[in-house]
Design goal:
It holds the Pfam family Hikeshi-like_N. The protein is of the alpha+beta class. 25% of the residues lie in helices and 30% in strands.
Amino acid sequence: MFAIICPGRPVITSLHSINPTTFVQTLTLPVNHIVVFLLPDTHIPPTHAASVHIQFPNQPFRILGAISAAKPSAIFRVDAKALEGEVVVGVSIEEAGNVAWKVGEGAGVPGGKGKQVETVVLARRIITDAFNFLSSFASAADGSRGERGWEELVPLKAFRDWWVKFEKKIELDPGFLEREGED
């Protein structure tokens, strides 16, 4: 019913069935990305979707996302290259509403409305994050720290450092901007 691809490895087309709606597959680490997709001639009813989960060693399962008839494949960044051992990927067919709720935004899940953060709100959160980080580096043109009336200067390296830190935040938690504050 489902298949998994780890770049550089053979396609896995026979996931282990726990029951008619739940499938698992153990993957040997390191793994950077996985692709989960419906096999040809496999159909999920339009009222249902498949949630995709991952379990790292000694941790509970956590949701990666979903696939459905409307979105029959997805690529997930796993970033488990530094870990040793195995991870377990789980796929569970459920009602689309339940999957949309688990995923959060319901992207690619029929009937998944969920909350969507507006672009303007996301932009404000990004700028606020940058401003808060960069303001700690500000100094006046005469070398003093942030006196009023002077043009404040921030080294370009500080911006590069913020960018690296911001990208790392997104890599570790892609949804952190959606959860910031109550806008």
